[in-house]
Design brief:
Low-confidence stretches: 1-10
Radius of gyration: 49 Å
Distance between the termini: 91 Å
Structural class: mainly beta
Largest sheet: 12 strands, antiparallel, barrel
Number of helices: 5
Number of strands: 16
Order of helices and strands: HEHEHHEHEEEEEEEEEEEEE
Helix content: 10-25%
Shape: elongated
Strand content: 35-45%
């Protein structure tokens, strides 16, 4: 079989290819599950093996003709030894000096295959048409949040205190709820409900055991269509009144009450979204050149105090307005919330500027400083301050955000 092989005297790869072809042709009769490790000699670096030379040069050798695969491999290697001795890189003696030559590759390796009896399991009939429930999750465009606090203030002054003064106790609670809609496709709808109620007690007031020092119910709603990156065409509505009566120390008169007054304001204009890169300052500024203010006073006797004519319950003004709601996180513990409202009918002007400075002592404890200057030339004029009004208080207590 080796005599039929042709080798190019100057091409090692061609020689080895034909030698491998001859050896594989001779091994065609081997079983398919047999791995013959003797072929490694044809693909490993060419080595001079003693048994190849002795087998070819011996006149009487019992091993010749017994194994056609071994004869073909030995004939191919012998042909290279005789025609291309320069390709032989090492000898069997040198291999033995570095380590033993494996002898187990002289015999064919057989895979041991274990057959396992096939067990027929129960056949489950699966209908071709299986009902499938498809769950479609719609995106939630609503953002809801809120915060609230309950705070106290106490001041004690003895009767003989050299500077005078008066002991008093006060409490104030507030709750703010927001539900804002933004479909990420130019439309937004913001809703905010603010509620505040506070009471105080002072020894000098012999008429009232408690009287309110903070009282507010206010709703702010805005529907906007995006015009540019931070600008929206906006229709804004403001509605606000109070919970209970407004009183003064040692005075039987009522100065305000629920729905006395009640203000409803509608403004059409532009809304600008304020947001810095560090997100410490954010909020909105609304400019409404077209605005309508409706004021209702349920108690007729309080009408003139709020700019209404005698015997009238309501007043409608047309004009312009500016509103701004900003929150500035000064640092990790101090924040400032500011609200500015200004309306003018070009006959009267009303300006309110609310400022709340919060000092967070811990997760649930905070201290607040509230400053509220106000200007309203439709109210009664004071001898000292004119149409300017001012309110201030400080408190400490529990706070919670969600």
């Amino acid at each position: 079989m080796a005599k039929n092989c042709i080798f190019a005297p100057d091409m090692r790869k061609v020689a080895l290819f034909f030698a491998a072809f001859c050896a594989l042709s001779a091994s065609a009769a081997l079983p398919k599950d047999t791995l013959d490790g003797r072929f490694y000699r044809l693909f490993a670096p060419v080595t001079f093996y003693h048994n190849v030379a002795s087998k070819s040069l011996s006149f009487e050798n019992d091993e010749v003709g017994k194994d056609p695969v071994a004869d073909a491999i030995d004939a191919a290697l012998m042909h290279i030894y005789l025609n291309r001795p320069d390709l032989v890189g090492t000898t069997e003696t040198e291999l033995n000096e570095t380590g033993n030559v494996r002898r187990d590759v002289e015999k064919p390796l057989k895979n041991e295959v274990k057959l396992v009896e096939k067990v027929e399991g129960p056949v489950i009939d699966t209908p071709d048409d299986v009902p499938t429930e498809i769950l479609i999750q719609k995106p939630d465009f609503w953002t809801k949040k809120g915060d609230g606090y309950l705070q106290f203030m106490q001041n004690f002054v003895s009767n003989n205190w050299y500077k005078g003064g008066e002991s008093n106790y006060s409490m104030v609670g507030a709750l703010t709820l927001e539900a804002n809609y933004d479909n990420r496709n130019k439309w937004k709808w913001d809703n905010k409900l603010e509620m505040k109620l506070g009471f105080m007690h002072s020894r000098s007031d012999s008429v009232h055991k408690f009287k309110s020092n903070e009282d507010l119910i206010r709703y702010t709603g805005k529907v906007g269509l995006q015009a540019a990156k931070n600008w929206y065409y906006t229709l804004q509505m403001l509605a606000y009144t109070q919970f209970t009566r407004g009183l003064k120390a040692n005075d039987l008169n009522t100065y305000s009450d629920f729905m006395s007054p009640f203000n409803l304001n509608l403004g059409l204009g532009m809304d600008y979204k304020v947001a810095t890169k560090d997100k410490k300052l954010n909020g909105t500024v609304n400019l409404s050149p077209i605005a309508v203010n409706y004021r209702y006073v349920d108690r007729l006797d309080l009408g003139p105090s709020y700019g209404l004519d005698e015997g009238k319950h309501s007043l409608i003004d047309f004009g312009s307005q500016v509103t701004a709601d900003l929150t500035w996180k000064i640092n990790d513990v101090v924040s400032w919330k500011s609200r500015l409202y200004a309306f003018t009918s070009y006959k009267r002007t009303e300006i309110e500027w609310e400022n709340t400075f919060s000092l967070r002592v811990s997760k649930y404890i905070s201290a607040n400083l509230f400053l509220f200057p106000r200007f309203d030339d439709s109210s009664n004029k004071d001898d000292d301050l004119g149409y300017l009004q001012f309110k201030e208080y400080s408190s400490i207590g529990f706070t919670y955000g969600f």
